[in-house]
Amino acid sequence: MIAVSTNNSASEMVRSATSPALRVAARELELYDTGDVAGADEVFAPDVIDHNPVGDAASGIDGMRASIAAVRDGFTGTQHRILFQQELPGGWVVLHWRMTATHTGDAFGFPASGNPVDIDGQDIMRIVDGKIIEIYHVEELLKLTQQISAPTQPA
Predict the structure, then answer these.
(1) What is the secondary structure of 76-121 as a DSSP string?
(2) How big is the CA angle at 141 (ends 137 and 145), to the nearest 5 degrees?
(3) Whole-structure pTM value
(4) What is the rounded average pLDDT for all residues in the chain?
């Protein structure tokens, strides 16, 4: 088992990951940072199981593509920093991450506010043959909603 406490960006972790599974896990977060919807094909199995889909998201890889697009369209300057990662037996990887961005587009039913966001989340994913086949994820959605719905603060 490999456990790493870090504060590296997802992109840094893709380049420095010590195992293929940790590289795939970091690449999943990097897709959200870059908005690379097409990159979902290299990271997710076509029939990936998302145990925590957002709203009425489609199942499988289409739901993951929609999620990446929603973050891309709603936020700029998105950066995930991996605070902790651990590879477990059976292809499981656990990530604790922090996302920062600016809310510059419609996202999750909220019009662009221009507000900065800073939330934490955890992903637990199972990786088989270099692809994520199932994922559980928990994000600070209440905190995100509070941040993007708050009135913009004067400079």
Answers:
(1) EEEEEEEEEEEE-GGGEEEEEEEEEEEE-S-BTTB-----EEEEEE
(2) 160
(3) 0.88
(4) 90
